[in-house]
Amino acid sequence: MATPEPFADFIGVTVPQGEWLDLHSELLPELEGVGMSLEVDTEKLKLWRAGGDGWGTVREERIGQVWAIGISGTVCAGLRVARRMQSVLAAVGARPHRVTRLDATLDLPVDAAPVVAAVTAAGRRGELALTRKRIDPRTIETHMSLRSDGVESGTVYCGSKTAEARMVVYDKRHERMCRKLPDTGDLTRYECRLRGGLGITLRDCSEPAAVFWHHVAPDFLPRPDGVPDWVPGAQGFVLDKLDPPTPFQRMLSLVDQSPDVRRLLALADQVGPYGLRL
């Protein structure tokens, strides 16, 4: 069975204050096009939230002389499904910017409980490293609980919160069940949390396989054949930018994703034959 492809589960970037307004205007149709609504709108903070389960967010926050933008994993997934991820990254790449964080992630359809236990034991024996940097056993931290089947499982954090590279391995199925989300079956998530000091770029956000395997192999997972070598701060990568969603497409997405609109339509149906017009 072929190994699944790594993907971006969180993207963080910053742009100079003077570039933010134009970038915000380019992000507006992209986010509305995948059904997101602006929940908080202040001078220094814009918080977008996805409809449906409500977990997906995009946060735009002014910090000193820059605007920091954080795109959550749920929104990254939605942008990939809608084939709009490259357009969003291209909007950022068209102006001065810095990639400050990337969660390069891989999901494997295996029971996470024994994996988390094995990673925890290896980490506490001092046997784990991200690339050549050994992980201090004192930074191995676990958050565990009992699953519905009575098995203890959860999350192991490998590396300090301030490390440039930190590995998190956890039971994604257990997390989803705790959130009352649909059962995916056995699912182990390997999440390599990378910070900007490593030289991550928009290319890594678009195609994270190289940076993921560069850091994760061989201590956490064996490197598959054919994975390209990772180059920090790589240049010369072209992001294809599509035409923005039309106002009509954005309207449809917002209507489709809004629980309030769905409720209004249900109530209109109960009113009778003139409910929708009303």
How would you describe this structure in keywords?
9 helices, 28% strand, 278 residues, alpha+beta, single chain, globular, 33% helix
* Beta strand count: 12
User: What is the strand arrangement across the widest sheet?
Assistant: 2-3-4-5-1-6-12-11-10-9
Instruction: List the uncertain runs.
Output: none
Major β-sheet, in short? Answer: 10 strands, antiparallel
Briefly note the structural class of the backbone: alpha+beta
Apparent shape: globular
Mean pLDDT: 90
What's the total helix number? 9
* Fraction in helix: 25-40%
**What distance lies between the first and last C-alpha atoms, to the nearest angstrom?**
55 Å
Percent of residues in beta strands: 25-35%
- Listing every helix as H and every strand as E from the N terminus to the C terminus, the arrangement reads EHEEEEHHEHEEEEEHEHHHH
Query: Radius of gyration in whole Å, from Cα?
Result: 21 Å
Topology of this protein?
Elements: E1 7-16, H1 17-33, E2 36-41, E3 45-50, E4 57-63, E5 66-71, H2 73-81, H3 85-93, E6 98-108, H4 112-124, E7 129-130, E8 133-134, E9 140-146, E10 152-158, E11 165-171, H5 172-178, E12 188-195, H6 202-206, H7 209-216, H8 247-257, H9 259-271
Antiparallel strand pairs: 1-5, 1-6, 2-3, 3-4, 4-5, 6-12, 7-8, 9-10, 10-11, 11-12
Helix pairs in contact: 1-3, 1-8
Describe the structure in your own words.
The chain has 278 residues and is an alpha+beta fold. It is 33% helix and 28% strand. A hairpin with a 6-residue loop joins β10 (152-158) and β11 (165-171). The radius of gyration is 21 Å and the shape is globular. The chain starts with 6 loop residues before the first strand and ends in a 7-residue tail after the last helix.
